[in-house]
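Tokens for chain A. Residues wanted.
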């Protein structure tokens, strides 16, 4: 399970909550440390004063009434008791207990040898602390008579922890609300930028984005607007240049054809005429390609299964052996005319070299994949990358005798890449070629 958020807003919220929890933990431990020191000072001072006062009181009480006096001096938190010995609880005192002994002896102005101190769980550090005796002390008041005292302290940690958790919860809710509203406003230009980049990558017309938000975000949006404008200008200039070249080639091709009419009809003139015919077809194909590239078609949500089925039905009506096997009906945001043109080029190749074509449509949730399978001779693996180059026709399998100008797969790849997809070729083990067109479903 992914714990770290993927969106920028989610990460801002997570970092804010993490900072809040860390600050609360630091505050908690600092509080506990200061609480321990405060309790030590308070208990040390109060107990020393109270025990010293009790000792002075007992000096004026007859020996037979001291037990009653000790009971009267006892409170809920500080209890006294007279005994003949200090008690086993004071055997083997710790360093902290020895320090308390010296400090309390100094406060009470008595010899440290007459005093015994041990630390109880109420003043213990770490996980051993709990409600109970904070200090136990025994002080010798007469020969063979000890005054024992037990100072109890309640443990406020649990109550403070509940208050801290409540404060943390309220603070977290308020901070999450504030951060969510703020981060969504901050990241709104980024979401618009991502959406525009996705649409622009699919070949859609994208208007310049408004430049607002933080300074670095505004710079990013401005850079995207400049990139969009430069790319659009570059593509338009390239399209006009190629279209002009293809158009201007018509004149010399026509002139050469006329000159051939005055030459004797032999093998050389027939070969030159065939070459001029190829040049004319290439020129016309280039013009058609440039016109289609320059045309802007809006994207829309279409039933891809119905689109492919209708295209295959046109082929079947013309007597072509085209079979369509849809996996499921699915919707796709695309330019339907462009997709039909790309599929038509691929199907024409499959029919030309395999005499039949079988189409499969599958959906994996992320993208729709259209496979066009033929039973032709396939393509040499070393030539796979070249077949997408313009005007390339592989002599071994895609010969001139079959016709075409070598632009079909180039146009198909241009259309597919314009939708953010990819087109791949693969020879089948049982023979034939499989052309896979993968179209992402992002942006539906």
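Reply:
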């Amino acid at each position: 399970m992914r714990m770290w958020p993927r969106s920028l807003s989610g990460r801002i919220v997570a970092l804010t909550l993490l900072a809040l929890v860390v600050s609360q933990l630091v505050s908690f431990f600092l509080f506990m440390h200061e609480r321990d020191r405060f309790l030590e000072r308070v208990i040390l001072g109060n107990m020393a004063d109270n025990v010293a006062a009790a000792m002075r009181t007992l000096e004026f009480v007859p020996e037979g009434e001291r037990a009653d006096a000790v009971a009267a001096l006892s409170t809920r938190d500080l209890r006294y008791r007279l005994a003949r010995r200090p008690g086993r609880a004071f055997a083997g005192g710790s360093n902290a207990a020895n320090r308390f002994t010296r400090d309390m002896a100094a406060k009470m102005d008595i010899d440290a040898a007459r005093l015994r101190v041990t630390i109880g769980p109420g003043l213990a550090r770490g996980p051993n602390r709990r409600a109970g005796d904070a200090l136990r002390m025994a002080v010798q008041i007469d020969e063979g008579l000890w005054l024992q005292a037990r100072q109890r302290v309640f443990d406020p940690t649990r109550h403070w922890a509940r208050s801290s958790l409540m404060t943390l919860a309220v603070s977290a809710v308020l901070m999450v609300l504030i951060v969510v509203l703020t981060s969504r406003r901050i990241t709104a230009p980024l979401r618009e930028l991502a959406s525009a980049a996705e649409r622009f990558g699919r070949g859609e017309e994208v208007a310049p984005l408004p430049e607002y938000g933080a300074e670095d975000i505004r710079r990013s949006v401005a850079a995207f607007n400049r990139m969009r404008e430069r790319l659009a200008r570059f593509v338009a200039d390239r399209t006009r240049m190629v279209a002009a070249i293809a158009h201007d080639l018509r004149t010399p091709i026509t002139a050469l054809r006329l000159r051939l009419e005055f030459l004797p009809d032999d093998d050389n003139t027939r070969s030159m005429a065939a070459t001029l015919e190829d040049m004319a077809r290439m020129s016309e194909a280039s013009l058609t390609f440039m016109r289609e590239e320059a045309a802007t078609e809006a994207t829309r949500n279409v039933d891809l299964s119905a689109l492919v089925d209708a295209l295959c039905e046109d082929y079947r009506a013309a007597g072509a052996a085209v079979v369509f096997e849809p996996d499921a009906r699915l919707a796709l945001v695309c330019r339907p005319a462009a997709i039909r043109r790309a599929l038509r080029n691929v199907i024409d190749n499959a029919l030309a070299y395999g005499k039949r074509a079988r189409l499969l449509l599958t959906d994996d949730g992320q993208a729709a994949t259209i496979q066009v399978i033929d039973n032709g001779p396939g393509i040499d693996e070393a030539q796979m990358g070249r077949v997408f180059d313009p005007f390339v026709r592989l002599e071994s399998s895609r010969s001139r005798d079959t016709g075409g100008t070598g632009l079909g797969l180039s146009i198909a790849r241009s259309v597919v890449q314009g939708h953010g997809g990819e087109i791949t070729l693969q020879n089948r083990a049982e023979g034939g070629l499989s052309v896979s067109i993968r179209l992402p479903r992002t942006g539906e």
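Residues 148 and 386 are 100 Å apart (CA to CA). Residues 8-59 form the longest helix (52 residues).
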